[in-house]
From TrEMBL:
Its main location: cytoplasm. InterPro entries: G_HFLX_dom, GTP-bd, GTP-bd_M, GTPase_HflX, GTPase_HflX_N, GTPase_HflX_N_sf, P-loop_NTPase, Small_GTP-bd. It comes from Oceanobacillus neutriphilus. Residues 196-358 form the Hflx-type G domain. This is GTPase HflX. PROSITE patterns: G_HFLX. Pfam families: GTP-bdg_M (PF16360), GTP-bdg_N (PF13167), MMR_HSR1 (PF01926). Keywords: Cytoplasm, GTP-binding, Magnesium, Metal-binding, Nucleotide-binding. It is found in: Cytoplasm. GTPase that associates with the 50S ribosomal subunit and may have a role during protein synthesis or ribosome biogenesis. Monomer. Associates with the 50S ribosomal subunit. Belongs to the TRAFAC class OBG-HflX-like GTPase superfamily. HflX GTPase family.
Amino acid sequence: MTAENVLVISVNQSQKSERQFQSSLDELVSLCKTAGGQVQHVVTQNRDRIHPATYIGEGKLQEVARLVESEEIDIVVANNELSAGQVRNLADVLGVRVLDRSQLILDIFAMRAQTKEGKLQVELAQLEYLLPRLHGQGANLSRLGGGIGTRGPGETKLETDRRHIERRIYDIKRRFQLVVKQREQYRKRRRTNDVFQIAIVGYTNAGKSTIFNRLTKSHSLEEDQLFATLDPLTRRIQLPSGLKSLITDTVGFIQDLPTALIAAFKSTLEEVKEADFLLHVVDISDPDLSQQQETVRKLLTELDAGHIPVLTVYNKKDQLKADFFLANQFPNIQISALKEEDLQALLAKIEEVLKEEWDLFDIVLDSSEGDLLYQLQSAALVVKKELLEETNQFHVQGYVRKDHPFHRFVEEK
């Protein structure tokens, strides 16, 4: 399929710094590329506020119209959320499909979703986003023939069938309740077993899936594109001390993530909230990493996950242009996910941080308590284990999670 020609329009409002504006614009260009488009032009305008009817001013709109015609543009993408009226007015003047940033992200999610749950989540987000904007979609939908912005539910006559959409939303939500229940039962089982859980979070394309795959010897999708991972994957790993853990790869975060999407992906993102420990992966080579770190922290707070211990993993150090890097998040580690020794250093660092967080224990077990010793090695961070030959007992030292059932046991010992 040939790439569609895309023209990006963006309004720079005074409350955003030039750097923030440029970063958001670069991200939109990457999103267009991920969706299968080829950005031919970027048209920006400085305005105190967005034009209520056409997003950009009259003069700039005529300039865009000329470019659309001369450059054979297929689609125009705005860097902000558009109202139904703005979409309709722009499409009437320009004569091509018009999308906003949120629709583009939803479109990429529709393209990326692999599991039944993922597909349902995307469809729900798209329908909920579209419902209040149906009035502006007439011209857009009459031209649908595949391409960016038309994946997912776009092929039905949405502009005349509000009732159909409302029924579909109700139906998806009902089916979703079952999925959420199943997920909750699965989590409950994991909590009952008290398995230590790590979640990998971070900005999209920071290298989360590469770290996940190398640590677990898995083959989840690794691409130099935004949102390569959509459906969360969980695997088992063992830390150097013998501590067993579950590790989950999650969907990447991004600036201005559509509210509808956060709401629809709540059950997927619950994985983050359920974790005992977070690895926040940051692309150390990205010039905009401060903004990206802030976006992730903000979203973690929104997900009620701001209290979970975090290790910041500055990844892609092999791509760092500067001679040194000044970290502003602690604790942290700098790695290249492609180097085995760096991954081993990461596992050791996780244990180092856990020692700070967990409680120290020092106990003696009888030789008959071998099963207990095995369980302790799997569930706690054992740093010393020696056989006391004269008493035929085991002297064990280590660290245990404050809320783990073993905590009370080692206290009593």
